[in-house]
Amino acid sequence: MLGKAALMPLAIVNKVLLARCLGPGLFGAYVIFLRICDLAGIFSLLGTKTLTVKLIGIAAGEKDWGLLKGTLSSIFKIVLASSVGTVLLIWLIRQPLCLKIFKSPDLFRMLIFCAGVIPLQNYLALTIETYKGLQDIKTASFLPVLQQLIFFILLSLLILGSAATIQNVLLALTAGLFFAPLAGLLIFAKRVKGWPSKRVGTNDILADSLPMLVTSGVVLLMTSTDVYVLGIFSNAVQVGIYGVASSLASVTFLSGNVINQVIPAMIAHFNAKKDLHNLKYVTRYATTISAMVSVPVFLFLFLFGRNILAVLFGPQYTNGAAALSFLILGQMVNTLTGSCDYFLQMTGLHVVFMKISIFSGLLNLALNIILVQHFGKEGVAASTAFSLVVQNSLSVLVVHRKTGIWTFASLEIMFQVLKLLKRRLFF
Length: 427
What we know:
Blueprint: H1 2-45, H2 48-61, H3 65-101, H4 105-110, H5 114-133, H6 137-160, H7 166-192, H8 202-233, H9 236-249, H10 254-272, H11 276-312, H12 321-336, H13 340-346, H14 350-403, H15 411-426
Helix pairs in contact: 1-3, 1-5, 1-6, 1-8, 1-9, 1-10, 2-3, 2-5, 2-8, 2-10, 3-5, 3-8, 5-6, 5-7, 6-7, 8-14, 9-12, 10-11, 11-12, 11-15, 12-14, 13-14
């Protein structure tokens, strides 16, 4: 909780600084650049991000340190090779991608930084997931905070020195992505020193990870389709305004992000032990706690979104208030339905979730293309929120059908928590 409480304000402050110093147009190109890196990063991870939590959680639960070390060694080698290949592919298609599809010369100048950003963000993601699998939540939460903190310090120095060009901003971003995983890997190296290492074949890892790659890719594509479609059918200014609204809407899912630091490894652990009682309990309890935290935030943003956009980012971004309302509605449903996506992936139902994700992704793409041409960024926001609701609803139903467990928030558990809080506060 403390990690996310530190991370979210830092991330928002960095977005505020960038939005104000770059302006909507250049900030919009920066948002598209980040989404390209995110999508390229997911595909170059080859599904190993989610698989890392699962395999490390199981190996740590069985105290098989040799298997744990061998698994990580193989995963990191796979990701290094795929990251290099992905960077080369982007470099080859950068001209038509930037100048013909997104029509942004600014984006063309930014894409050279993919060579550093994509591999580094992949290693940061794998390092974080490793600590999640070990249930070392403190370190897993510390690393993204460190990355954002380094970025904030360097960005502040650039702004104070009147040197906040887009090239210097991207250098600052790359520096944060370099030092954060480096710190995590150094800490981990001390822990595993002296551990034996079992050989784990890459084919074994890829057999499990590739279905997760499709799922992860479709999920990220679904969450990024809005920016891509808006960038293609509109312009960078509208993307910049929409990007600010999207960043603010993500605050609604803060508690869900906190829960997802812990719950995947626990789901994998209890499922491996066939402990359905604890599996059900921790899943619904976590979702209920998350919902109780999110509802007040949701209401505040929904009622005062326009004012918040004006105060934080500037009056030029208030045009994103309607898009913000749609997006936070989608995020609220995402919170109330709980970790249904992780549940499916951690319990051997990742292929089913892959199918759900593909359907939702295609629905999202179709709705985005149709609605953006009539309603602009508001249509994009509405279709994105609706598709997220569809995906989570289908996932909840499949989890219940396959396991008999509901993942969404429980009123009964909420009342139990409130009674406990009342006793703690007044007695």
